Amino acid sequence: MINSCVAPHALKKGKPSKDRIFGASEAAQKRISEIGKDNVINATIGCILDNDEKFVVLPTVSKIYRGLKDDEYFRYAPIMGLPEYLELVQNACFSQSRPEAFTAAIATAGGTGAIHHAVWNYAEVGDTVLTSEWYWGAYKNICEDMDRHLDTYPMVTEDNKFNLAGCEKKVREILAKQDRILLIINTPAHNPTGFSLTPEEIENVLKMLENCIEGTEKKAVLCLDVAYIDYAGDREEVRKIFRKLSNLPKNIFGLIAYSLSKSFTMYGQRCGALIGVTNDEKQILEFINVNKITSRACWSNCNRGAMETLDTIYSDEHLLDQIQQERAHYYTMIQERGDIFTEEAEACGLKMLPYISGFFLSIPAKDPEAVCNKLHEDNIFCVPLAAGVRVAVCGVPKKKIYGMAAKIKAAMDALGED
Q1: Rounded average pLDDT over 15-34
Q2: In this structure, are residues 337 and 93 in contact, taking their beta carbons and an 8 Å threshold?
């Protein structure tokens, strides 16, 4: 029995478990060291590799970042973020679809930092936060670390549409027990399935939330996690969801978690933004104040070099156009891989979640761990999630995508999976 000096609230979190994504990646790297990368399919980590399996950095991003002056890297940034960044990151996020509302941004340590601030400042201690049954595992870690809970609803219906009824059922169930609800929806290019909600579906979610709190003093917050938005399709089309956040009722608040990790291939620089959207000017000032205090208490200030890079690019139309072309090239490359897998899955009868776009796709499984272990026999490495198997098509070259669906189907059949 350990004589622990850890505070009791921290002990409640239990023993640390190995991160499934990085654990799967380590297993893949071990096999690669044994038999060579040409003989291994590593579909574990969510960053872009080209068709020669080389790590991708957008060339213009690399050039701008490496060309910064010393003080643009190393000086402290303001707690909120560089003033120019706070406006330009909204341009990067919204483009032509800025909602008719009061908006403000605060710099965060990546998209993860944005979700952290959303949970800390818009859910009370002991509250339940809601997301879909297919979700990025860090959501649960973030909630539990701050004494919140995470619950889920079935994400899609039998005909592969967004499950609004299932979401509403859970919203009402949670609101019967607490005074507010924070609903996190990862869209477009959902991690880990590649699913996306349409603007009409976002509108229906907001109407549902309004109906659920009508006639009460309760509050609803919708947080859109848009980390993969720049690899989700046509730049302007995928951003039309933001227009649906216009003219929100005062008891509904909008949050957007934006990340430079994927949009700028700056995964290790840890920079992003939490953007608030409201029809109430007092609430946007409140958003700024509470999140500024939380930032000071967490990381003090964010990566200046990453913010300077975004500022430089979004202040120059020529540079921005170059970035858009580079993103489009890699979006097309990833989309082709996802489409090949989807076509072959349909041909061999492998059931999968509806993939529209993005870095990942997912296959339902009763025992994901067993399926992934079985795939190791074929030197295929995927990530076991709670509800199934995640395939990171962003990192698998096109030539290795061919035949992959059939091998996963064979592994599942051998284990008696439906």
Answers
A1: 79
A2: no
A 10 A CB-CB count for 18 gives 9
Average pLDDT over residues 140-153: 95
SS (H, E, C) the chain: CCCCCCCHHHHCCCCCCCCHHHHHHHHHHHHHHHHCHHHCEECCCCCCECCCCCECCCHHHHHHHHCCCHHHHHCCCCCCCCHHHHHHHHHHHHHHHCCCCEEEEEEECHHHHHHHHHHHHHCCCCCEEEEECCCCCHHHHHHHHCCCEEEEECCECCCCCECHHHHHHHHHHHHCCCCEEEEEEECCCCCCCCCCCCHHHHHHHHHHHHHHHCCCCCEEEEEEECCCHHHCCCHHHHHHHHHHHCCCCCCEEEEEEEEHHHHCCCHHHCCEEEEEEECCHHHHHHHHHHHHHHHHHHCCCCCHHHHHHHHHHHCCHHHHHHHHHHHHHHHHHHHHHHHHHHHHHHHHCCCCCCCCCCCEEEEECCCHHHHHHHHHCCCEECEECCCEEEEEHHHCCHHHHCCHHHHHHHHHHHCCCC
With 70 as the cut, is the pLDDT of residue 1 above it? no
The predicted pLDDT at position 23 comes to: 79
- In this predicted structure, what is the pLDDT of residue 16? 57
State pLDDT tens for residues 198-240: 999 999 999 999 999 999 999 999 999 999 999 999 999 999 9
Q: Which of 110, 111, 149 is nearest to 130 (CA)?
A: 149
For the entire predicted model, the pTM comes to 0.95
The stretch 129-158 carries a mean pLDDT of 95
d(CA 372, CA 91): 41
309-318: per-residue pLDDT in tens?
Answer: 999 999 999 9
